Amino acid sequence: MIHWLQHETAGLLVLSAISIAFLLLLIIKFKLEPFISLVVTGLLLALAAGLPVNTIVGSALSSKESLIEGGFGGILGHIALIVGLGSLLGSLLEASGGAEVLTQRLLRAFGEKRAGLAMGLTGLIFGIPVFFDIGIFVLAPLVYVVAKRSGKSMLLYALPLLAGLSMTHAFLPPHPGPVALAGFLGIDLGWLIVMGLACGLPAFFVAGVLWPKWIGNRIMIEVPEEFSAPQEEAAEADGGRGPVSLGKVALVICVPLVLILGATFGTVFLDKDAGVLPFLTFVGNPAVALTLACLVAIKLLGTDRGMTKQQLSELGAAALRPVGMILLVVGAGAFFGAVISATGVGKALAGTLSTAGLPLIVLAYVISCGLRVAQGSATVAIVTTGGIIAPLVKDADYSQPALALIAVSIAAGSIIASHVNDGGFWIISKYFNTSVKDTLRSWTVLETILSVTGFAAAVGLSLVV
User: Fold this and answer.
1) What is the DSSP letter of 303?
2) Residue 409 pLDDT more than 80?
3) Quick one: 451 exposed, middle or buried, by C-beta within 10 A (0-12, 13-18, 19+)?
4) pLDDT-derived band of residue 90, with 50, 70 and 90 as boundaries?
5) CA 143 from chain center: how many Å?
6) Counting Cβ atoms within 10 Å, is residue 111 exposed (0-12), middle (13-18) or buried (19+)?
């Protein structure tokens, strides 16, 4: 029996399935922190698979070559700086009132009749550098203003905003999920941005423009009683400095995207001996690009507007505080994936898939969906699925665009069917005054539409790249 589990294809698949079920049990039933659950499950799987102790944890003198240190260190070396810099950049945009400036300009441009679309575009643009939940905290009062003014259901304006924030959080760097997938699968971030936008924008249109128009006219949600005008709060928090200019906000958001894409397309279209290529490669490195963007933001949104060194320091500390848990979860997921790879289940699964004829992009989506629905966390679904899929693409001859589409399918699966085991579900229910039933009818369906449409776009593109 032990030999069958450790060496036969069917046994290895059963062992992996048991480990994933045990992981979900720890997270769902026993409410154990995801990163601890991933570490415990990875260690138990490694022992059950018969891996040598030295392979798992190294020796008493050195653990550099071990699965636990290599799994953690490999992925964190790739994403830690990017996630930290992205968080800092988002906090500077938040503190400067950039979100309000952007929203008000879009509302003026699109008019009251298209206020929902304006809120959706706000979510898309502001969601690039800002984490999903922070985006809700900052932008919810703006939804209250528009809904109060119109007298219509708040869902008409909240759902487009949420669709924009969710799409960027799931599909685009510098958010932790996409960045982690780039590390797992060896994807250039430029290609991930291109494919994330190619699949995410159609998904946003269906889930964030068409769906809110339909459901928003069928569920009337009033503005919460504790409504307060964001203009007054922003003025108080900003110390009376006045609003930041739209041009500065746009510049700060565009700098990292332009630099990263410049490096990607420079590599594709320029001769390898072109003199400008080393420069594009350097400034287009995600860590360098985000560092430059943060420096620009500190100057334009901070010191130029009278923020002191002490205020900037406190702002940075507050922004980086939640990053630690994110990095622990991603690192633990990488360790779990490294153990799965070391057991040989990746090759076994690859053989099974080749026999069954199931496309890898479909398998990646199904696994991610299952993990998301079972335990609620999109990040856990992404890093666990990434760890499972990584061995399958390691020896295959996938192009960078094809790998990016597989990553998009994983990201799409990670956001499907948000329900009561997802912390975001309760944040949305609270901030937008919706009952559990109405949140399921509106937000849960929105996430499912966003997921399925994004995945369908990825499958369609995979047929031509």
Assistant:
1) G
2) yes
3) buried
4) confident
5) 23
6) exposed
